[in-house]
């Protein structure tokens, strides 16, 4: 059966804005996050404490956090790859982080400057340190379906990386289709290979137009947390072929039609996307935003 409720893990401010060519002013980012909370989001991935030279778009992480109007009941997780990042996050009162691993050797090198194996040397003390500080940890695995350099990613390789991350004490594992090459049958097979969908989330980029179909397959397989980005912005600076995430509006449109509750206000999301698109200087790639903003 399909779930009655789905948690949308909003990644627009992080995954969306990490990939913008021009640096977005910190006050625009802060307003974006506040508007997302106003639209009903309960989880807003806000920024990353990564190396500012690696991702200059998010070099203002500290300042952004200090400008947020945090609301009770809303979580504001941030990405943290290593102990230096954890130190920075803890100094700014972060209460949830996410580590982000690669399912492939090549992307581990390109995104983290580590190997498939040594990425865990980096994450282990981060997860342990965060849990000790009372901070929840989510984990991502990137390139779960395919990788631009290695082709299809073998399912057992994804499961091995994912289970190691869960074994460290991460509360949830988000399966990333970084370059959007996955298709619904592959999604079902991957989720089934984990044995249980209970701690899984899905993170689809819409490069090949498969994100909604893939999401539906994941829901049928028992997943109840879906990552999405308001306006459908996003991508990864270390995987050139990556384009925008599944748009939150497209997801909410489909879920509403299925009678699945998200607690999100679609009109407010569309208004926010339209507002952001003006600041970014280009229209939202989301079809639902385009259709509804013609109004
Ligand atoms: P490295 O060069 O190996 O770093 O990069 P290092 O550990 O050797 O440290 C070198 C120097 O950097 C040191 O300074 C550190 O202090 C400093 P020095 O001693 O030389 O003066 N440093 C830092 N400074 C500030 N904050 C930090 C930090 N870390 C080290 N956190 C590193 C390793 C992991 C840092 C680098 O590879 C990195 O920052 N990578 C991040 C890449 C990234 O953010 N990619 C996008 C996010 S992943 C994604 O989008 C996929 C996802 O959406 C899911 C999907 O779609 O699949 C999640
Ligand atoms: Mg992503």
What does this protein structure show overall?
The protein is of the alpha/beta class and 295 residues long. It has twelve helices and ten strands. It has helices spanning 12-16, 26-38, 61-67, 83-91, 105-112, 119-132, 155-167, 184-193, 211-220, 248-257, 266-280, 287-293, and strands spanning 7-10, 47-48, 78-79, 96-102, 136-142, 146-147, 151-152, 172-177, 200-204, 225-228. Helix 8 (184-193) links the parallel strand 8 (172-177) and strand 9. Helix 2 packs across helix 3, helix 2 packs antiparallel against helix 11 and helix 11 packs across helix 12. The longest helix has 15 residues, at 266-280. The chain is globular and about 50 Å long. The model has no long low-confidence stretch (mean pLDDT 96). Magnesium ion (MG) binds next to loops.
Structure described in brief:
This protein is 41% helix and 14% strand. With 295 residues, the protein is α/β, with parallel strands linked by helices. An 8-stranded parallel beta sheet has the order 1-10-9-8-5-4-3-2. The chain has a two-stranded antiparallel sheet with strand order 6-7.
- Specify the biggest β-sheet: 8 strands, parallel
- Give the mean pLDDT: 96
Measured between the Cα atoms of the first and last residue, the distance is 34 Å
Oligomeric organization of the protein chains:
single chain
């Amino acid at each position: 059966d399909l779930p009655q409720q789905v948690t949308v893990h909003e990644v627009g401010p992080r995954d969306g804005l990490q990939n913008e060519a021009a640096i977005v002013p910190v006050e625009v980012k802060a307003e974006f996050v506040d508007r997302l909370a106003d639209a009903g989001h309960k989880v807003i991935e806000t920024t990353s404490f990564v190396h500012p030279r690696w991702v200059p778009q998010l070099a203002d992480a500290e300042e952004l956090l200090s400008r947020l109007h945090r609301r009770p009941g809303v979580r504001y997780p941030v990405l943290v790859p290593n102990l230096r990042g954890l130190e920075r996050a803890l100094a700014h009162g972060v209460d949830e982080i996410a580590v982000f691993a690669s399912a492939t050797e090549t992307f581990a090198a390109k995104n983290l400057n580590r190997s498939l194996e040594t990425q865990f040397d980096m994450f282990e003390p981060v997860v342990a340190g965060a849990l000790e500080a009372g901070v929840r940890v989510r984990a991502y695995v990137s390139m779960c379906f395919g990788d631009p350099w290695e082709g299809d990613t073998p399912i057992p390789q994804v499961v091995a990386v994912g289970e190691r991350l869960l074994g460290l004490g991460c509360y949830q594992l988000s399966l990333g289709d970084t370059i959007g090459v996955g298709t619904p049958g592959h999604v079902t097979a991957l989720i089934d290979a984990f044995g249980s969908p209970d701690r899984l989330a899905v993170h689809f980029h819409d490069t090949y137009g498969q994100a909604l179909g893939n999401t539906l397959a994941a829901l049928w397989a028992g997943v109840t947390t879906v990552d999405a980005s308001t306006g459908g912005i996003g991508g990864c600076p270390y995987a050139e072929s990556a384009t925008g995430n599944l748009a939150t509006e497209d997801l909410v449109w489909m879920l509403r039609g299925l009678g699945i509750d998200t607690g999100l206000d679609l009109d407010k999301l569309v208004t926010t996307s339209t507002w952001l698109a003006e600041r970014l200087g280009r229209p939202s790639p989301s079809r639902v935003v385009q259709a509804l903003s013609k109004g």
